[in-house]
Amino acid sequence: MRFESLLLTGLSLGAVYALVALGFVILFKASEVLNFAHGSLVVLGAYVTARTHEIFGFFGAVLAGIIAAALAAVLIERLLIRPIRNAPVISLAIMTIGIEVLLNTELVRQIGVDIMTLGHPWGADTMTMGSLVIPVNRLIAIGTAVVVIAVFLVAFRFSSWGVSMRAAAEDRETAELVGLRLDRIAVVAWLIAGALAALAGVFLTGAPTPGLTPSLALIALRAFPAAIIGGLDSVAGALAGGMIIGLVEAFAAGYQSELAFLGRGIGDVLPFLVMIIVLIIRPQGLFGRKEFVRV
Amino acid sequence: MRITRQRRLMALATASLLTLSLGACSAKGSSSAAAEVDGVKTGAGISGDTITLGILSDLTGPFAALSTDLNRGAEMYWDELNKAGGVCDRFQVKLDIKDHGYNVQNAVSLYGQTSQNVLAYQTIVGGSHTAAILDQAEREHKLIIPSSSTPTLAQSDVVMVPAPTYDVDMETVAGFLLEKGLIKKGDKIATIYMEGDYGETAHKGVQKSAEENGFDLLEYKIKASDSDLTAQVNDAVDKGAQAILVSGVPGHTASVASVLQSRNADLPIGGSWPSYTSSMFDTPAGAYLYKHFYAGSPATTWDTPEGQALYKRATAAYPDAKLTNQFAMGYGMAKLFDTALEAACKAGDLTPEGVVKAKMALPPVETDGIMPTMDYTKPGQSPTRSIFMFQPDPDVPGKLKSVADGLYTSKDAS
Amino acid sequence: MSNSTLVRPRPATSTRGDRGPRLWQTGLLAVAAVVLLLVPIYLGTFWLQLGFSIFAVAVGAIGLNLLTGTTGQLSLAHPFFMAVGALTYVVLAGETSETSGGTVIGLGLPPLVGMVGAVFLSGVCGLAFSPVSGRLRGIYLGMASLALVFIGQHVLNTAVPLSGGFNGRPTPPFELFGLKFDYSDSPVVILGVPFGRLEWLWYLGLVLLAAAFLFARNLLRSRPGRAMKLVADSELAASVMGVPVMAYKGKVFFLSSIYAGLAGVMYALSIGSIAPQSFAMDLSMQFLAMIVIGGMGSVGGAVAGAAFVMSLPLVIQNFSAYIPFLSTDSGGITAAHLAKYIYGAAVIAVLLFKPSGLSGIWQSAVETYRRKTLSKQELVPSKEGN
Q1: DSSP secondary structure letters along B141-184
Q2: Scanning every residue of chain A, which has its alpha carbon at the shortest distance from the alpha carbon of B260?
Q3: Where are the domains of chain B?
Q4: Which residues of C touch A228 (CB under 8 A)?
Q5: Is B94's Cβ below 8 Å from some Cβ in C?
Q6: Closest Cα partner for B328 from B265, B406, B395, B266?
Q7: pLDDT value of position B165
Q8: Is A97–C132 a contact, with Cβ atoms under 8 angstroms apart?
Q9: Per the CB < 8 Å rule, is B283 touching A211?
Q10: In this structure, what DSSP letter does residue A80 have?
């Protein structure tokens, strides 16, 4: 009974992490940058939703959150990433770190001491399936994530944007030569990544967590290992990585008394440990592509 | 080449001479002259007739909520006292508030920054933070009221803990639940406690209560940053816990309530005194908390006669703030501090050493009902074994309704 | 051939160039040295404590600069290696005692031995991790190094007999030739000033930083240093030139972890205790900010960046009375917030507008000055043949 309930929790958490990890991968493919500021986008979306749910109603607020996060992402891309897009990868990464420091500080200051609610209409409702009790929030999370990811995969495969993006990620120079507008591809990518982040934030602050607190940023941090485990240049990898991390986290929390010999709190480290192990075996991630450099 | 080397040697010689001669001019070594005001000896932290008290607070970390109200309460106390003439009818009190963000390193630096200019520390937030500077504070004779209450801190000559030590607190809470019939001897009780001085001390109290009452304990240690306690609570409920005792930050308590609510459980939650804030009751889990949460407060809830009087003045002074009863605690802490200052002043010695001496000679301190009688004559022991037991209630200001006619002392803890 | 060569502009690098420092550079150095040596004689607790913290962090920043700035390996793991250094020092040099977390073990060895041991052990850890770091590219390395930080936190929190757990444990004071760098009731008096812990630590920090600085600078000016820079620009090109890339990356990682270990010991001495929260992820970010703001690849820049980032929050707090919009309420902007805004914005500004950072600004100023003085000498007949 415990196993099934943990499995379900793990899958629902994993689905939400997959949303965030997907955002990472899109950004990496489009701008070749690991966005350290992504956690703050998650918090931004949730924050805007929490602030506006009494004005716009829940769904309006979610939309507001998505727009806010997407807009912030696009602004980041245009104003801060694009000017230095030819700089070494490290500089881009550190730029996102600078952005993270700013955004995170301001958001934490705004949320402050309160535990903010987003006004989920399903509140703390639960559904009982046999002997399993699962919060409705988690079920809706799985459902929404599956739908969103499916739509995205289809678009990625068949839409002109998707094709362009895959081409650009494959070989930037040739893509430019062929006439693809790399700038536009990047903007759309950041837009989508921001939107996905906001959506994830909505679910991560629903039941059974009490609401939006500054610690949401730490939770969003777990999506980093998820993206890396899957391989930063693989969409399928993002999904796999998200699921793996979600399951690891759920089982580590659920079996923590059994795992106590490793030290309490091992659940926080486990996603990163798994990530290191995967990286040692496959330095490019499970689904990533190995770069061959012949000398 | 030779020229360059000669030049370098000349530079070295000049520099050394310069250093030594400039060094001799320093005034740093001379000690500050001791002073006197109206026959009362003064020293660091007093200039003219203004006393400066330091506050090392957490305004940006996990205890920001608690700290803000703590500071407001203290500010109001000193404002009122200043208007009425000040300490000893002579000295005005000024507060120097600094933020360490719950980071021990910052706390240490800030202590170093401020200690020369303050008489003593009205408040230091964080047990481990206080512990880190304790050695130096003892050396410099700076009286401290930490916002934390552990036996280790209570042992020190320079510390006045403002509340029952965490172990006594939790023993009392458990005793209350037992007395009210919410739990029985021999029951399975889950205890969720935070790592660190605070949680681990509280845990010792729970363990003692378990020993005395035959409780079967399910223990879960958590981190300050943990926000989702689903696994722990589910585990406890599945194993048949009859109650959950929480010694963490308000976020933890809210999470516990969320999970219990989603399971349609009916367990009482007993909390330590730092484990709640009023914004917690506005979350979806609030409904559960209103029905099942019990905790103690070191300072009066707003609904006792003294609490009501204080509340009136507090809301007048801070009309826009959602005041929690941490305000009352801050006010009480200031009052305790004032007692030491007054005693020192009467003894004619308001130097830091004099204040510490005065504190050590204090008989049990009364605070006009804001706090229980605090007894500092036995270092290392909890200054009181009573707390203001309450349950949350949406219709009461501050949302805390006293459930034991104010001050409560559990039979276990006495 | 005539002896005088007229109207030939001197090249930008004077013929005297590599034979020794210019007079004004020596002068500047001398002045700086005098000032630094005199600080403990004149200034009090706040500046001494701040100074020593800066020295500690600067040592770490120099190490990170070698790794990330010069060789281009993104690492967030510095707090981890600092933690290794700090923990080793505390265990080797401390005494077994009771803390609020329980009993902590200490071997009571001389603090100098503790320091050496700490630096050694962090180096070993760096060496152990370098095969992993060598195989990982760019961002993957960054994330793997971040993982180390979390692992380090977990170990510090859990290994209570060593680290004291969440509350940490006090740092044993440093000692050199029987002189204890600690509070004393009868301190040594030099030039009329009683020398306590902070005064001694200042000089210790100065010496260690100077040594770290000189070593790094000489390394970068040598052949291995040039090889390192090539590795950063293009591993491919470096390999083609015969540089053993993997070996170099490993060695630099090892070197950088040694620096971090030393920084960790100094950090522990500066705070007076070690606790897990002192070695968390935000320290990683601060270090990266330091080397970026200072100018990646520049040793002096790393020190300048360290001074900037380290002193911001403390200086702002100290002078908070003069900054009107700061508040002490948790709803307003506190000094800690302001400090973070500033260095976050500084990182962004540097990357956008002046990637060479503070050291770049300094170099530009030096160039401008030199050009001004050179233009006077342009038409001077040269007595020696070039």
Answers
A1: T--EEES---HHHHHSTTB--SS--HHHHHHHHHHHHHHTTSS-
A2: A208
A3: 40-164+303-379, 166-297+390-408
A4: 140, 143
A5: no
A6: B406
A7: 92
A8: no
A9: yes
A10: I
Q: Cβ of A275 and C151 within 8 Å?
A: no
Phi-psi region of A209 (alpha: psi -120 to 50; beta: other; left: phi over 0): beta
Break chain A down into helix, strand, coil percent, rounded to 5.
Answer: 75, 5, 25
Distance CA C112, CA C123 (A): 17
pLDDT tens digit sequence for C196-226:
888 888 999 999 999 999 999 898 888 888 8
Sign of torsion over alpha carbons A196, A197, A198, A199: positive
Task: From B145, B96, B151, select the one nearest B122 (Cα to Cα).
Answer: B145
pLDDT in tens, B215-224: 999 998 887 7
CB contact under 8 A, B231 and A126: no
Query: Is C216 part of the contact surface with chain A (CB cutoff 8 Å)?
Result: no
Q: pTM here?
A: 0.85
Among C residues 252-271, those touching chain A with beta carbons less than 8 Å apart? none
Distance CA A188, CA A161 (A): 8
Query: Which H, E and C letters describe B45-112, residue by residue?
Result: CEECCEEEEEEEECCCCCCHHHHHHHHHHHHHHHHHHHHCCCECCCEEEEEEEEECCCCHHHHHHHHH
Choosing among B66, B68, B221, B230, which should be mutated to test the A contact, i.e. which has the most A CBs within 10 A? B230
Q: Please choose, from the candidates B115, B116, B63, B71, the residue with its C-alpha nearest in 3D space to the C-alpha of residue B95.
A: B71
Whether chain B has a CB inside 8 Å of the CB on A46: the answer is: no
Distance CA A279, CA A138 (A): 30
Residue A256 covered by a domain: yes
Comparing B40-164+303-379 with B166-297+390-408, is the CATH topology the same?
yes
The region, left, alpha or beta by phi > 0 then psi within -120 to 50, assigned to residue A263 is left
A130 interface with C at CB cutoff 8 Å:
no
Question: Is residue A291 in some structural domain?
Answer: no
| Kind of pairing between the strands at B293-297 and B269-271 | parallel
- Assess contact for C263 and C283: CB atoms under 8 A: no
Confidence of residue B208 (pLDDT cuts 50, 70, 90): very high
Question: What's the domain count of chain A?
Answer: 1
Minimum CA–CA partner of A111 in chain B: B60
Determine how many CB atoms are found less than 10 A away from the CB of residue C218: 11
Q: Is B150 on the interface with C (CB under 8 A)?
A: yes
The pair of three-digit structure tokens given for residue A5, joined into one six-digit string: 């309930």
Whether C358 contacts C309, CB under 8 Å = no
Residues within 8 A of A (CB atoms), B 59-98 only: 60, 64-65, 68
Q: Mind telling me how many Å the CA of A157 is from chain C's nearest CA? A: 26
> CB of B172 within 8 A of CB of B164?
yes
> How many CB atoms are located within 10 Å of the residue C11 CB?
10
CATH 3.40.50.2300 fits B40-164+303-379, yes or no: yes
Q: Decide if C158 and A264 are in contact by the 8 Å CB cutoff.
A: yes
> What residues make up the domain containing A72?
2-281
The arithmetic mean of pLDDT across residues B315-343, rounded, is 88
- What CATH number corresponds to the domain at position A66? 1.10.3470
Q: Which of C137, C140, C162, C353 to mutate to test the interface with A (most CBs of A within 10 A)?
A: C140
- Give me the interface pTM, i.e. the ipTM: 0.87
Q: Is C167 within 8 Å of B110 when comparing Cβ atoms? A: no
Looking at chain A from residue 147 to 176, which residues have their Cβ under 8 Å from any Cβ of chain B? none
| CATH class of the domain defined by B166-297+390-408 | alpha beta
In a domain, A177, yes or no: yes
Contacts of A95 in chain C (CB under 8 A): 347-348, 351
Q: Is C181 exposed, middle or buried (0-12, 13-18, 19+ CB in 10 A)?
A: buried
Tens digits of residue pLDDT in B123-150: 999 887 888 888 889 988 999 999 888 8
Cβ separation B112–C49 shorter than 8 A = yes
Q: Write the DSSP symbol of residue A212.
A: B
